[in-house]
């Protein structure tokens, strides 16, 4: 899988991660349906915080939790169906297939997936992959990579947004 666009950000704090999520939400509204975003990173790296920022940016005001035990949570916001998956508990990639999630990855839904690597090569390719890393200073790094024309459009909108000083591009 080769990328057609990349962005590296330093996120100083939780507010910066939430802001990035809101920025992604604005881009999702413009590229509304059939988008697959995969979130990778260690435990505590900020995947659920970023997901919460996306949902808040789409207008969802309720509680956002990691679907670690339920595997998936559906949020209907801004006339969009956003499925928030968490595959952390998968022991084998085949569990994704057995769970029957394939039909949810279609041209009308937004699929936000934490721990996509746990489903192996069974998942369809992402439009955008975001890898989050904690740093020794308590901040985070976010590496965004586009893997489709739609992912590139989203990445371009994020790149062209005025990010706060606490969320800045890095070389």
Properties at a glance:
eight-stranded mixed sheet, 8 strands
SSE topology:
Blueprint: E1 5-11, H1 14-30, E2 35-40, H2 47-57, E3 72-77, E4 80-86, H3 94-99, E5 110-114, E6 128-134, E7 140-146, H4 149-159, E8 167-169
What does this structure look like?
The protein is of the alpha/beta class. Helix content is 26%, strand content 28%. It contains four helices and eight strands; from the N terminus they run E-H-E-H-E-E-H-E-E-E-H-E. An eight-stranded mixed sheet has the order 3-4-5-2-6-7-1-8. The radius of gyration is 15 Å and the shape is globular. The model has no long low-confidence stretch (mean pLDDT 86).
Mean pLDDT: 86
Give the % helix: 25-40%
The number of distinct β-strands equals: 8
Structural class: alpha/beta
Largest sheet: 8 strands, mixed
Gross geometry: globular
> Helix-strand pattern, N to C?
EHEHEEHEEEHE
Summary of the model, kept short:
This protein is α/β, with parallel strands linked by helices and 171 residues long. It is built from 4 helices and 8 strands, in the order E-H-E-H-E-E-H-E-E-E-H-E.
């Amino acid at each position: 899988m080769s990328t057609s666009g990349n962005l590296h950000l330093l996120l100083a704090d939780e507010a910066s991660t939430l802001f990035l999520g809101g920025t992604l939400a604005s881009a999702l509204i413009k590229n509304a349906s059939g988008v697959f975003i995969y979130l990778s990173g260690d435990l505590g790296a900020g995947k659920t915080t970023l997901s919460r920022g996306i949902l808040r940016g789409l207008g969802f005001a309720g509680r956002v939790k990691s679907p670690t035990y339920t595997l998936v949570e559906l949020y209907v916001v801004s006339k969009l169906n956003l499925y928030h998956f968490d595959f952390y508990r998968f022991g084998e990639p085949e569990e994704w297939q057995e769970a029957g999630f394939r039909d949810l990855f279609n041209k009308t839904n937004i699929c936000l997936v934490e721990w996509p690597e746990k489903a192996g090569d069974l998942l369809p390719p992402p439009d955008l992959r975001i890898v989050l890393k904690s740093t020794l200073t308590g901040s985070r790094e976010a590496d965004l990579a586009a893997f489709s024309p739609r992912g590139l459009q989203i990445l371009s909108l994020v790149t062209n947004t005025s990010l706060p000083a606490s969320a800045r591009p890095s070389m």
